[in-house]
Amino acid sequence: MNILFYTPGTDGAAWIGSLQQALPGAQIDRWPASRGRDTDYAVVWKPPPELVAELERVKAIFNLGAGVDSMPDLSMLPSSVPLVRLDDAGMAEQMVEYVCHWVLRHYREFDAYADQQREARWQQRPRLSKSAFTIGILGTGVLGAAVAGALVGLGFPVRVWSRTRKAIPRVLSFAGVQELDAFLDATRVLVCLLPLTRDTGKLLDAARLSRLPRGAYLVNVARGALVVDTELIALIDNGHLSGATLDVFRDEPLPAGHPFWHHPRIVLTPHVSAVTLVEESVAQIAGKIRRLEAGLPITGIVDRERGY
Ligand code: NDP
Ligand code: OXD
Predict the structure, then answer these.
(1) Helical (H) or strand (E) element with 282
(2) pLDDT tens across 13-48, in order?
(3) Which residue's CA lies nearest to atom 35 of ligand 1?
(4) Which residues fall within 8 angstroms of residue 108, CB to CB, at 6 or more apart?
(5) Which active-site residues does the annotation give?
(6) Is the N-terminal amide bond of 255 cis, ω within 30° of 0?
(7) 300 close to 87: Cβ distance less than 8 angstroms
(8) Which ligand is nearest to the CA of 248?
(9) For residue 24, how many other CB atoms are within 10 A of its CB?
(10) In 10 A of CB 240, how many CB atoms?
(11) Where are the alpha helices (DSSP H) in 163-277?
């Protein structure tokens, strides 16, 4: 079995070593050194179009991430080639840690206490009502559902938005564009965990963000292009939103000089809310390759029409 491996900007030694251990009989080559061999499976992140053009006859393409927006146009591949995303593979736990940190930090007003400390001011702030501190999660897939469950466990009222309605204990489910405004209306902290697709790009523009109650806060851990940057900044500057934590950006790395860098009410991290873990991801991919070789079904196949 021949496996092609590609991630930009690294030789992939740790990945290739781990894949080799998990699939001892496989020949694993980094692209473009793999050229000239018939590839059975491709394991890739952000492949260039020239690489994708070589994958017409592979049995499956494994994307080294949950979001497949990083793949170039796949319409050039036959629809019979499955594109497989990572299902959790250790990312849900990280996303839960990251989002719960920001929700708790905001709810418990730790930034206000940090300001008070800088002024050497001893002042106990009244406890905010938790029952009115609703957390809204856009996207209720592998990651959104895990985050919703954790926030319910912390006692927050939680609502979710997705294409199809969900039945999650103690979580209010909204479905479809027609229910988006109602979902936003009572959301105090908006967590974005949607894939970037032709339907979701620029979803969070001034009109949508203005539906949030005054003082609401945004945590975007999905993709930067879901948000219209200038409109987000304008709503923070005019006081409608109290601020934002952003882990993802339209262009990454975030260009020097982008106003997000030094905005006093924006906290940013460099796309680390849930990193792809070698061991967990390889175990998942190798398990799926073994199932495919045995003619068994696998999970995580991307619906090309929906785009996720
Ligand atoms: P899933 O595919 O499991 O879930 C996607 C969710 O979004 C589903 O609930 C889906 O609805 C919903 N959705 C998609 N399109 C629409 C739409 N048009 N309207 C309403 N709801 C929609 O993805 P994951 O949970 O695994 O990951 C989500 C995203 O998080 C990834 O695509 C990626 O961009 C990002 N990510 C970011 C990371 C980081 O480090 N910052 C790490 C990993 C992922 P339905 O359930 O009805 O289909
Ligand atoms: C992913 C990511 O999609 O790391 O997995 O952003």
Answers:
(1) helix 278-293
(2) 999 999 999 999 999 999 999 888 899 999 999 999
(3) 222
(4) none
(5) 223, 271
(6) no
(7) yes
(8) 1
(9) 6
(10) 16
(11) 180-185, 206-210, 229-237
Instruction: Residue 276: name the closest of 143, 69, 88 by CA.
Output: 88
Closest C-alpha to 211, from 195, 231, 225:
231
Distance 107 CA to ligand 2 centre (A): 27
Atom 44 of ligand 1 has which residue's CA nearest to it? 66
d(CA 16, CA 28): 7
What is the whole-number distance in angstroms between the Cα of residue 68 and the centre of ligand 2? Answer: 8
Confidence of residue 77 (pLDDT cuts 50, 70, 90): confident
Threshold 0.85, pTM exceeds: yes
Ligand nearest to the CA of 193: 1
Token code pair at residue 277: 């873990």
Which SS3 state, helix, strand or coil, does residue 185 take? Answer: helix
**What is the tens place of the pLDDT at every residue in 165-193?**
999 999 999 999 999 999 999 999 999 99
CA separation for the pair 69, 260 (Å, rounded): 23
Rounded distance between C-alpha atoms, residue 133 and residue 152, angstroms = 12
Q: Which two tokens stand for residue 61?
A: 């393409």
